[in-house]
Write a structure and sequence with these properties.
Blueprint: H1 4-8, H2 19-26, H3 30-37, H4 58-63, H5 69-91, H6 96-107, H7 109-112, H8 114-117, H9 126-142, H10 148-167, H11 171-184
Helix pairs in contact: 5-6, 9-10
Length: about 200
Amino acid sequence: MQNAETILGSINHRRAACGESLQARFGGGPTEKARATGTSPAAYPTLRGLGGRKASWLPDRFRAGEYDRKALQRRLIPLQARLGRLLRRGEESPDRKAAGLCRELRKWWPALWSFARVEGVEPTNNGAERALRPAVLWRKGSFGSNSEPGSRFAERLLTVVASCRQQGRPLLGLLIAAGDAARQGTAAPSLLPTRPG
């Protein structure tokens, strides 16, 4: 079970909290959470009834072009009001962990809604998780590295692989150019994306 620190990390009012992580934390419903922890269902707030998880998830409908940012913000008002009430009620929970999580979420309230205010901010961290997946699978399959230099090599190579994938650049060409540059004593090719024009 993730705690608020894991979910929110070191976010501030300019950053965003991941909706999927919050859904995972609250989404099972109070009965399932209580059964898993042996506590009262009243101790666990839930996101169910706050607009649904997938069927009518507002940011997905916004991205699909069903409405603009102003309409998204208007449609989020009732959701924000219900979640605010739920968190206030959760702060009074007899379960210290649930109450603490509700306090943390209220503390980071602006970050929960960054996706509605700031152009380009996603409501979930799914893109970041997809980018990290190859590295996680590599580590799992290879059992990681036995040395600090080996770890640095792996992290740098995985960064190059992820950067090339995101930019649609051929990895082999970049690695050959980097090897040639090292052999000739010239500057290595940049991993920064090239700007059009």
